[in-house]
Amino acid sequence: MRQTLMPANRGSRILVAGALIDSTGNGLFMASATLYFVSVVGLPASRVATTLSIAAVFGLLSPVPLGRVADRHGAVRTYVLLMCLRGAGYALYPLITDLSGYAVLTCVLYAADRACSPLLQVIAAAVAGQQERTRTLASIRAVRNIGLSVGLLGASAVLGFPSRAAFTTIFLVNALSFFAIAALVLWSVKAAGDSALTPLKGAGNGGGPQGHAGSGSPPSRAPTPFRDVRFLVFTASNGILSLYDTALIVLLPVWVIQRTDLAHAWSPVLLTVNTTLTVLLQAAVPRFAKDAQGARRLVKCTALTLAAGCALFALAEELPMWASLVAALGAVAAMTLGENLHSVASWELSYLLSPAEARGQYLAMFSMGITSQKVFGPVLLVSLLLPLGPWAWVVLMALFAVATLGALWSGKPTPSPGADEAATPDPLPSEAR
To answer: What is the annotated signal peptide range for this record (predicted)?
Structure first.
């Protein structure tokens, strides 16, 4: 299992170790933050929830401008600075005593948090290289599920004796994890050698800003995802396909309570099936997405598995309890398979469709599609679709079908002019191969 889960590249293994630390710290924080600010600090729960929604908007908008900074000044430098900012910010949480301080700090941290994901994709691609890029991202995703579970369990153990000191310890451990991750990222780039540095220095000729004085050429207009219609369609399509995330995390517990005869205790069991299968599948799926054609095939398979999951969820609403449980388990398994197929395919295609000199901006835009469904998905699925009963799954199936067509149309890399028509399209510039 270890040999299939862990990448062969040393720099990639270091990044995976950093992801394990990151997700463990996140698990600690997720299990304790709201409880601390409501029960210890005394903030109204409704105000905390509103603040988190506002902060999510900051997280939605921050990746693109920070991606532009990374393209200009370097992905590693920007990522490390953001990690240090996050470490310092989370260390300040125990000092917060009022709503305004909580709101400001949470919005800043959400903005920094969401900007880090596309930058890590850029760094992983450079450190791992063409052959190991997708496998490295899959390994990172797998260990994140492991680390999150460890963090949640660890927080439960500590909070068995709740006190301000226990919460402070959790927050500080989480804060220190970000400084450790920053150090590991620098180590991974060093382990990868000089070949990893060029794509990480910044946009333009030789890693400097475009149009640098003395280059002998006039500054060229850098590509931007806002004017790239195909990439915008690809981003929107993948955001819609990512609704499986909200369906499994947010909708599933409500669905169990409102639409089935299952005991409420089955909800965490179904979620555990999802996380366990994700760890197993992320070790196996990347081998099928080694190029654009393989990734597009995975998108087609994603549509089939998500449709099967929707059909099984609809069927589970109409069956007796034990038959309903079997259908629900099958639905979660099918959705989880689609989730993992789609995540691997989207990493590959989003990278291939992003120009090297603006990769930070493009991948940041791509992440906005995924973040958008986290913002709007709960309202769409729980408030609008769930009251429709079994027809909700038919509507969701139709959305997945439309999004799949959009992703397949927009996610087809275009061969460069003059390329051999029989050759496989390869949009990667030479320095990124």
So the answer is: none
- Could you tell me if residue 211 is inside a domain? no
Judging by beta carbons within 10 Å of its beta carbon (0-12, 13-18, 19+), is residue 46 exposed, middle or buried?
exposed
The CA-to-CA distance between both ends of the chain, in Å, stands at 28
pTM score of the predicted model: 0.71
Q: Which residues of 363-394 are buried (b: 16+ CB within 10 A; e: fewer)?
A: bbbbbbbbbbbbeebeebbbeebbeeeeebbe
Widest CA span in the chain: 75
369, 370, 376, 378 alpha-carbon torsion, rounded to 10°:
160
Domain range holding 191?
2-204
How far is residue 2's CA from residue 240's CA, in Å, rounded to a whole number? 33
Residue 268, Cβ density class (10 Å: 0-12 exposed, 13-18 middle, ≥19 buried): exposed
Q: Which amino acid is at 326?
A: V
Whether residue 38 is contained in a domain is answered as yes
Closest C-alpha to 397, from 256, 318, 303: 303
Q: Which residues, including other chains, have CB under 8 Å from residue 103's CB and lie 6 or more apart? A: 51, 54, 55
CATH code at 374?
Answer: 1.20.1250.20
The enclosing H or E element of 300 equals: helix 292-316
56, 375 contact by CB (below 8 A): yes
- State the total domains in the chain: 2
Read off the pLDDT of each residue in 75-89 and give the average, rounded to a whole number: 94
Contact 172, 49 (CB under 8 A): no
Establish if 210 belongs to a structural domain. no
pLDDT in tens, 42-65: 888 888 878 887 888 888 888 888
Residue 196 and residue 239 in one domain: no
Query: Residue 87's CB: how many other CB atoms inside 10 A?
Result: 20
pLDDT, tens only, 367-389: 888 888 888 888 888 888 989 98
Residue 257 tokens, joined: 């309570």
Assess whether 265 and 129 both reside in one domain. no
